[in-house]
Specification:
five-stranded mixed beta sheet; 2 helices; alpha+beta
């Protein structure tokens, strides 16, 4: 079970996880992940990581920009019998979008 964002009420399926991995690798073919910190407490493992890659393919409808992107994230894994059975993830989506050149535009206030 993968929940991203961590408070998601609809966990992602195995097919969703595979599709997300393929999308990341086609959008950022040189992608790397570095573990910056890892904490273990009983049946839970927390990993703080940084994903780095160059935007060389379409990403969520955005054509390749050539921008180098660095995105930080935290995953909490719940373990059973030595295997990951649940993941909860938070990552800096806004930061990643800004590095790709996207901007936030506020909605017009309701009258």
């Amino acid at each position: 079970v993968w929940n991203s964002p961590s408070g998601s009420t609809k966990p992602r399926t195995l097919e969703d996880i595979i599709a997300a991995g393929k999308m990341i690798h086609s959008s950022f073919p040189d992608v790397t992940f570095s573990i910056e910190e890892m904490l273990v407490d009983g049946k839970k493992v927390m990993v703080r990581y940084i994903m780095r890659g160059t935007h060389q393919g379409e990403f969520k409808g955005l054509p390749a920009t050539g921008n180098m992107v660095e995105v930080s994230g935290i995953m909490i894994h719940r373990m059973e019998n030595g295997k990951i059975v649940e993941e909860r993830e938070e990552l800096d989506r806004l930061g990643s979008y800004q590095q790709l050149g996207m901007e936030l535009t506020p909605k017009e206030a309701k009258k």
